[in-house]
Write a structure and sequence with these properties.
- With 128 residues, this protein is mostly helical.
- It has one domain.
- Helices cover 75% and strands 0% of the residues.
- It contains seven helices and no strands.
- It has helices at residues 2-21, 31-40, 44-50, 59-71, 75-101, 103-115, 117-122.
- The model has no long low-confidence stretch (mean pLDDT 93).
């Protein structure tokens, strides 16, 4: 039983990845995603100038810029960038909640983040 419980967090991360990857290209790109990809193609000074008056800090767009240089600038690569962070959230929740509330609660929280529809949908969009 203990061995199975030790495998469960890894299984949840794997299932979260598979669920987010499933039909990631099903919907066509929408306006905010296009704006994000267009901005990622810009230089860092251009990104900073463009975001100067925005309420959102430019870190996401800077990271997306470097990701696009590494993986290419496409709808799929932009969505995969968000997918990676969506999947990384799952074990992060496990470790934080586990330290505060214990492993049982951490597994429940992890499952909520892994399978929650909003978490999945936002992990499949370029701009989150």
């Amino acid at each position: 039983m203990a061995a199975a419980a030790g495998v469960l967090p890894y299984l949840l991360v794997l299932l979260a990845f598979a669920l987010r990857l499933y039909r990631i290209d099903y919907q066509s790109i929408w306006r905010d995603e296009g704006v994000s990809l267009h901005l990622a193609a810009s230089s860092i000074p251009a990104i900073l100038a463009n975001r100067a008056g925005d309420v959102h800090p430019p870190l996401y767009f800077i990271l997306l810029h470097y990701w696009a240089r590494l993986a290419g600038l496409s709808e799929l690569s932009g969505r995969f960038f968000s997918l990676m962070f969506g999947v990384l959230l799952v074990p992060s929740v496990y470790f934080v909640v586990g330290r505060v509330f214990g492993e049982g609660t951490a597994l429940v929280a992890m499952a909520i983040v892994a399978f929650g529809p909003l978490y999945v949908v936002y992990s499949q969009e370029v701009r989150t």
